[in-house]
């Protein structure tokens, strides 16, 4: 593959885009389910080549071809780099409908438009979640180096990724890492008025400037996410697991200290600064909290998790960090262990099944498959003597409801109307339990104040989006670009 030099976009185009049918491929299995499409492992029938097919979800599209797909195709056609996923072609199929059960079990792909990608064995979140997988330091350095190299290529080509997180970093069994999911990416070369939406990037990876309402921003937004991913790799779990935007900011400030004009010149001008600045000064605790990391890792992390985007390290500065040049050095990707394929979709599904099984086992045993007989009690006693099966674990598909928005934060209580909508964005079902970062995309606005996150949902049920800022919430009334009620409007402001 030819790789364009930094600063140059390879505009060479593939000849037959969209001209082939999806019938050239047979489905092997589903490996991903994002907010905007399902991803399948598939085989090209003629050549036997294994590929990943991302079905472009059209069901919610009243306004034509989804903007996220247009973005992804447009940018990926221009970006050619060994650390960026390769979009090979687009194929279409007039095949059977989505809910056709027979089709779901068959190898035939259902009707729709598909993006054909090179296949990658894992995503970083899926791999890290695999029981028994522990990354070594040279391995983490190797992944981080590739991640930064791919991102540096994007940034010098004036592309912001805007959804950096583990599940969008794909790995193959040769140890290669590639950035994927450019559905929220944006070319900032063409954005002259500088008005960008701040409702991008999955909450746990979202930088403070976006949470404070920035509409002018640059590559530093991705670099904050890189800091979160790096710390997560070393820590073994995500480091800033906010449940709502205020809670996320709260967690950031508790770790990185309070922002003020000294450590972040201009911060007081952000739209939400006065609403969210901590009421009392907080100390920066990055070095203290991660004191078990080695000093070079800590140094890099400290520069990535810098509140002021102008002082935060760029991908280039990060690549030059001591961390990558001292022993133990990053390993050769080819020397890395080969793992059984692991995508976040599958690991989550497995966990969900296990949890369901555990819940079932916890339930009181039913006699002859019937509910346990009620104890005969006087009506007045019945009140306090509920049949035990009702006290069992919740079988709500989303598990526990998330904590009320705002949580134990210092922010004023939030407007509670519609406090939680488990089927946000129209996605139902769900992996329950653990908190989950709302997706990079803001959900469709339902006109009420909603918490930012719910537990993660399954195929699409993951689609727990960050909340829309409520127009009546503590965010201090209407703000530019808020109160949008569909995706195309939502992204109207780029
Ligand atoms: N080329 C690929 N090879 C292997 N797996 C892939 C590939 N592309 C995507 N996947 C899997 O599918 C998942 C979802 O893909 P992607 O993020 O592109 O979809 P999306 O609809 O934009 O998702 P999201 O809403 O999570 O951003 C990835 O996390 C990954 O596990």
From TrEMBL:
Catalytic activity: L-threonyl-[protein] + ATP = O-phospho-L-threonyl-[protein] + ADP + H(+); [DNA-directed RNA polymerase] + ATP = phospho-[DNA-directed RNA polymerase] + ADP + H(+); L-seryl-[protein] + ATP = O-phospho-L-seryl-[protein] + ADP + H(+)
Disordered: region residues: 337-494
SMART domains the UniProt entry points to: S_TKc
Record's compositionally biased regions (Pro residues): 402-411
SUPFAM superfamilies, sorted: Protein kinase-like (PK-like)
Keywords: ATP-binding, Kinase, Nucleotide-binding, Phosphoprotein, Serine/threonine-protein kinase, Transferase
Protein name: Protein kinase domain-containing protein
Subunit structure comment from the entry: Interacts with CYCT1-3.
Organism domain of life: Eukaryota
Matches recorded under InterPro entries: CDK, Kinase-like_dom_sf, Prot_kinase_dom, Protein_kinase_ATP_BS, Ser/Thr_kinase_AS
Family, similarity comment: Belongs to the protein kinase superfamily. CMGC Ser/Thr protein kinase family. CDC2/CDKX subfamily.
Tagged with keyword Aminoacyl-tRNA synthetase: no
BP GO annotations: positive regulation of transcription elongation by RNA polymerase II; response to virus
Polar residues bias locations: 485-494
Classification via Pfam families: Pkinase
Residues annotated to bind ATP: 54
């Amino acid at each position: 593959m030819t790789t364009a030099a930094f600063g140059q976009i390879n505009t060479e185009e593939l000849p037959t885009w969209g001209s082939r049918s999806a019938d050239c491929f047979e489905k092997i299995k589903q490996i991903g389910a994002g907010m905007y499409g399902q991803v399948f492992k598939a085989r090209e029938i003629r050549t036997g080549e294994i590929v990943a097919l991302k079905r472009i979800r059209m069901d919610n599209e009243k306004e034509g071809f989804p903007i996220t797909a247009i973005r992804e195709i447009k940018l990926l056609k221009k970006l050619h780099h060994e650390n960026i996923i390769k979009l090979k072609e687009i194929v279409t199929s007039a095949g059977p409908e989505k809910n056709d059960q027979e089709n779901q079990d068959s190898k035939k792909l259902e009707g729709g438009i598909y993006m054909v990608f090179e296949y990658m064995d894992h995503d970083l979140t899926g791999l890290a979640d695999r029981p028994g997988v522990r990354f070594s330091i040279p391995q983490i350095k190797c992944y981080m180096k590739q991640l930064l190299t791919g991102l540096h290529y994007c940034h010098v080509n004036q592309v912001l990724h805007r959804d950096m997180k583990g599940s969008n970093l794909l790995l193959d069994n040769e140890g290669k890492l590639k950035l994927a999911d450019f559905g929220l990416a944006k070319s900032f070369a063409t954005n002259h008025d500088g008005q960008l939406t701040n409702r991008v990037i999955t909450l746990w990876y979202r930088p403070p400037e976006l949470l404070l309402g920035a509409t002018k921003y640059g590559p530093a937004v991705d670099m904050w996410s890189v800091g979160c991913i790096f710390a997560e790799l070393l820590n073994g779990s995500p480091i800033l697991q906010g449940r709502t935007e205020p809670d996320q900011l709260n967690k950031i400030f508790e770790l990185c200290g309070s922002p003020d004009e000294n450590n972040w010149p201009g911060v007081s001008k952000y739209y939400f600064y006065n609403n969210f600045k901590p009421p009392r000064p907080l100390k920066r605790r990055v070095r203290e909290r991660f004191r078990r990391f080695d000093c070079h890792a800590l140094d890099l992390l400290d520069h990535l998790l810098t509140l002021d985007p102008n002082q935060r390290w760029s991908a280039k500065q990060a690549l030059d960090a001591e961390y990558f040049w001292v022993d133990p050095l990053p390993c050769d990707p080819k020397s890395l262990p080969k793992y059984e394929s692991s995508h976040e979709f599958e690991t989550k599904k497995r966990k969900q099944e296990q949890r369901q099984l555990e819940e079932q086992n916890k339930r009181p045993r039913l006699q002859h498959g019937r509910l346990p007989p009620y104890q005969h009690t006087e009506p007045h006693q019945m009140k306090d003597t509920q049949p035990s099966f009702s006290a069992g674990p919740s079988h709500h598909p989303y598990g526990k409801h998330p904590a009320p928005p705002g949580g134990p934060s210092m922010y004023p209580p939030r407007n509670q109307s519609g406090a939680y909508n488990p089927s946000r964005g129209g996605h139902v079902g769900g992996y329950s339990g653990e908190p989950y970062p709302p997706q990079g995309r803001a959900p469709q606005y339902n006109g009420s104040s909603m918490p930012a996150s719910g537990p993660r949902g399954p195929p699409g049920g993951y689609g727990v989006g960050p909340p829309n800022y409520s127009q009546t919430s503590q965010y201090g009334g209407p703000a530019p670009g808020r109160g949008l009620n569909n995706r195309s409007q939502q992204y109207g402001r780029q």
